[in-house]
Design goal:
The protein is an alpha+beta fold and about 210 residues long. Helix content is about 25%, strand content about 30%. It has a single domain, classed as Nucleoside Triphosphate Pyrophosphohydrolase.
Length: about 210
């Protein structure tokens, strides 16, 4: 499936109407309320969903990272470049671009931000805003402390419903369902898959 840049822009501007896809534990609003009830502060954060121009016209690849195994949070998992908002960041776009530069060496001067998806509240009490942007191909270099690998997943793979599945695990005796979108040897799940699912539904023009 090919998508011209203007089509991407058009759908991303309507992203507010699309449901957030929390991985099995209700909506972002419900999870945010649950954190507030237990006294946890929900902190702002942002990730960069960076779409790189593919080999063919109007084809796009999504930049993802694999986190290093020694990190305290989400070690070894697949993620977007991103992190919590610093006081120096003027907004969440600045957060996403700064983190992408720190983690993978992304050059902000080559990146065009086209919009944002609805925020996604994590179990670790971050309200993550996915910033969607496009870029011509860049040469990335990962921060060795945080990033074990940088790789691309075709946007067409994420848009294909046949590539998605619902998996589950047991936590405290309860079954938890979540979205996963495996790609080759990579197992993409959790918050990353949830945000990719929202991106898929946004670009599909669907409301649920």
């Amino acid at each position: 499936m090919t998508l011209p840049l203007e089509t991407l822009r058009h759908h991303i501007t309507r992203a507010h109407a699309v449901q957030n896809y929390i991985s099995g534990d209700g909506t972002s609003d419900e999870r945010k309320l649950a954190h507030q009830v237990t006294g946890r502060t929900v902190r702002p954060a942002a990730v960069l969903i960076l779409l790189i121009e593919g080999d063919a016209k109007h084809e796009w690849d999504i930049v993802l990272t694999q986190r290093t195994a020694h990190l305290h949070d989400h070690a070894g998992q697949i993620s977007f470049p991103g992190g919590r908002k610093d006081d120096e960041d003027v907004d969440l776009i600045a957060t996403a671009l700064r983190e992408a530069n720190e983690e993978i060496g992304a050059d902000a001067s080559k990146i065009e931000v086209i919009g944002a998806l609805p925020s996604y509240v994590t179990i670790t009490a971050y309200e993550v805003t996915p910033i969607v942007a496009v870029s011509a191909p860049q040469l990335f270099k990962g921060d060795p402390f945080e990033v074990a690998d940088i790789f691309h997943v075709p946007l067409s793979h994420v848009l294909g419903e046949e590539n998605w599945r619902r998996d589950s695990f047991l936590r405290a005796g309860l079954r938890r369902d979540y979205w996963a979108v495996p790609y080759k040897e990579r197992y993409v799940w959790g918050a990353t898959a949830g945000m990719l699912r929202t991106l898929k539904m946004t670009l599909s023009g669907a409301s649920q």
